[in-house]
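Hi V.,

You were right to ask for the full record rather than a summary. Here it is.
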Amino acid sequence: MKKSIYILMFALLSVGACDDGFEDLNVNPTKPTQVDASNKLTAVMKFISSERYDNWRAAMIYQSTMMQHVATTAGYWSGDKYTWNKGYASSLLDRYYENAIKSIEDLTFQLEEEEAPEEMKAIVKILRVFAYSRLTDLYGDVPYSEAGKAVIEGIFLPKYDAQSEIYPDLLNELEEASAALGTGVSEFGSADVIYNGDQAKWKKLANSLMLRLGLRLIKVDPTASQAWVTKAIDGGVMTSNEDIFYLQHDADNKNGIGEVFTADGNPRMSDTFINLLKDANDPRLTVLASLPAQKIIFKEDPENPGLFIEDYREDRTVEERLDPDAQRGLSNGQDLPMLQEQDVDLDNLFSNLNDYSEPNRLLITSETAPMIFQTYAEVEFMLAEANVRWGLAGDAETHYNNGVTAAMKQLSLYGEGGIIADAAIADYLAANPYDAGNALEQINTQYWAATFLNEYESFSNWRRTGFPTLTPVNYPGNVTNGTIPRRLTYSESEQSNNPDNYAAAIAAQGPDVLTTRVWWDVE
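Predicted structure:
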């Protein structure tokens, strides 16, 4: 992507902030020139992918470790230990409302004022649904009907809408967007840096998101869940990896998660994830994981017998880093003293963090990697589940096999090193066949594996289904009584800046703590 995206974002945040309408701006030469809607769309897409700040805190520090994809001994990785850093927990709210939501609402208003084609409005509507669904899934009741309206309607203190009211509206919006889209090229054209204006792909995305959100209702309203899932399937969902909803980043527009890995050397792969991959001889193992670049050799301190000190370091070859047998996961909920007390490797005298796998820094942690929001593999797993639950969508085993295949094939988005051979996929499916007697657990465990680094979706789907079965940690000083959190928490600033609406949200939803469940996550 070679757009001047940061200039556009500056325009949206600064020029847009002083714009009090979309009347003829040429009448008053002191007013700013309106940014073209197509250029705003490109910026909105970047804002949805977001930056290092919230990808580091909400996505990685909290959700990736709570979901046991990642583990670390670093104390500030609060999600690994169920401790509460309120600023980290609110980071998605803090960034999304000031960037993504503000810009989406502004663009929506502009398209209405300019009487833009319905297909353009539909594309923005889908992006709007995605952004709000991410917020409400993570926090529960959130500003929705009055959000992003400070400039447009003068609403500076938005109310928090109930998730039970937000969800039906999101689903209706997707239905309307799908109906408005055809098969031609959107007038957004190349400004659409996700689908390049392909209306048919946006239509599939609308229905695929409808499938996702419809299944979210399974515990709270199974009847509505089935109805929306049926509608999504009938409308036409993703049919191949060509339909994946992702933003390709580049050197001028960096991937926020990639920037996390540039800045932070602490993340390791969780043993929960590594063991699942190794036990099944999963060919994704050394696409997703690798050993650190250096091995640290320790020796016993001659002046302090029983203590070990670093002797020297040696570089690992690429082959050593990608050796499947050498991959090793770190247990969640530990700090370095805890690890040192229990994890002695007699062959090397001392085992250290560089003996544990990390997300594959040779491939998937690049700042130019794609940011993935929803995949065809996820859709196939949801179709398999819909068949198991209600007999919809054909054959569960076929959808399951398609999902596994697509999940492995999609790793080619990271480059040549992510390509998995067809024969390896076939061998994996033969050795790990669909099990109708354990279908929901198997399907959703594969969903969890396929959403590695898309931790917002991993966390939501785990809360919806309870799969995979994760063993909670009980780190000293945790705030959840040793249970996996069910949501993240609101911004502390809301208590002083928007106290009445904040108080109303707490009264309606429950305490603003990590263990309060959102509306659809009923026990």
